[in-house]
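Please go through the protein record below and explain what the tokens say about the fold. Record follows.
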Amino acid sequence: MIHYLRAYISDVKNHKILIPIIAVVMGFLLGSLIILISKENPWYLYKALIQSVFGVNFDNLGTDRPAFSIRRVGEYFVYVMPITLTGLSVAFAFRTGLFNIGAEGQLIMGAFAATALGIYLDYPTYILLPTVIMGGTLAGAAWGFIPGYLKARFNVHEVVVTIMLNYAAMYITNFLLKMLPGSDSIKTVKLNSGALLSSDFLAMLTSNSRLHYGFIVVIAAIVIFWFIINKTTFGYELKAVGFNIHATEYAGMKSRRNAALAMSIAGAFSGLAGVILVSGTFGYGRVLSHFENYGFDGIAVALIGGSTAVGSLLGALLLGALKASQPIMQGDGISKSITIIIYASIIVFIATRKHISKILVKMGRTD
């Protein structure tokens, strides 16, 4: 048994799974240590995580108060859905060797397009809802195409462009949102009913949570990501560009064009996240005073998930749990900043994957 375990640890092929697991464990250990140093009880962290994900409230066990809240579970998945999509966005760009820091701006553009279409158009659901989803997706794709084109045409670094476009997206859409009929300085009127992903049925099942049919859209996006990357020639070329752009150019692949298209597809996933927020979670457009960090959370999700479709979902489930547990932890006297420290440290550990891999190889070969 020990010999098999050592062989498994030393095999570099298994490190794609082992290193993220180790990074997550180390992140939580570090978070627990900081809580101890702060003279608080680390159990409150894990209790809050269990309550936010599974709805189990240990404080109410053995009392007359309900020990289980299905509403907590519904709200947990509301947190997970948009960061799954922004995680897919960043991961898709990563697979092409690009760093999409513009997921936040692409999400904002997708949200604005969904808001405008949902307010101005009033058609039956089977017409309006697909229009809103497609409109928001295309808006995100168009915003992602800008850095992709500049990278392909003029070799302008995508990190610089995407960072600046995040601010451009927020201030442009804030101006335009206030011009929509019925809007004020905070939000717009509600979208027409045919543009909404909200569900009375799901709300009833989850004790009036905001859970909505956006989960179907998220599942479809995961399948599309997986299919493009693993089952198409285009996906193969994208992965090849990510490994070595010069080799792909020598092989005759249109690597520059593929890079631009990859950023557009990445933007489409983020734009879809914006649709989820507007059409599902809130039901109206919002004038933002600051970034909500869905796009930046997507970076953490993609890194934790190894830039894969299923991995991004798992990363979003973890990060969503940390975000959903913040209000509960604050009620127990633990700062919500501890969750930021945890997933930031997880990213740091993942960034040192080469060193961790060397340590694992040495551990596996120890007699």
Q: What stands out?
A: The longest strand covers residues 187-190. The two ends are 14 Å apart (CA to CA). The domain at 77-320 is CATH 1.10.3470 (ABC transporter involved in vitamin B12 uptake, BtuC).
